[in-house]
Amino acid sequence: MPTKSFISIVSLYFAYDEIGAVAPMLQEQMGFTLYDIGWLYRFVILAQIPTDCCESSIYSTPNILLALLGGQFVDSVGTSISGFVFAVLIIVGSTGVALSDGFWPMFWARLILGIGGECQKVCQSRVLTEVTY
Prior knowledge:
Elements: H1 2-16, H2 18-30, H3 34-41, E1 43-44, E2 55-56, H4 61-77, H5 79-99, H6 103-132
Antiparallel strand pairs: 1-2
Helix pairs in contact: 1-6, 2-3, 4-5, 4-6, 5-6
């Protein structure tokens, strides 16, 4: 189980960094601006607060909102099923980013990747706790 856990978290980090790796190509071939690429990494939660004090990644925004629900899901169905569900969300989000033809489809795919990825980290904590205790 720890080996599968390690592989899933390493692949998640590759999926998270895919925007940075293709940023020059997004600018050159799809006409993205640095502002657009920044939005895929940064998402202002509250527009009223200055951006330098509340920027968060669109990827990690689900973590703020769904960490507790992800933990409840892991507790209710177990680590195997929840890990599989979260892995599917990661695959769907990462594939959606790769197949996107514009900013908004990529934005929403990145959000799905964040939902799966951040909940997967909650599941990872549970797996490591079960292994070590």
